[in-house]
Amino acid sequence: MRRGSNFVLAKSSHWLRQSTPTLINISESGAAGLAYALINGDADGDNAITVFDYDLLSTAFDTTAGDPNWNELADFDGDGSVTVFDYDILSDNFDLAGDE
Question: Rounded to two decimals, what is the model's pTM?
Answer without folding.
Answer: 0.85
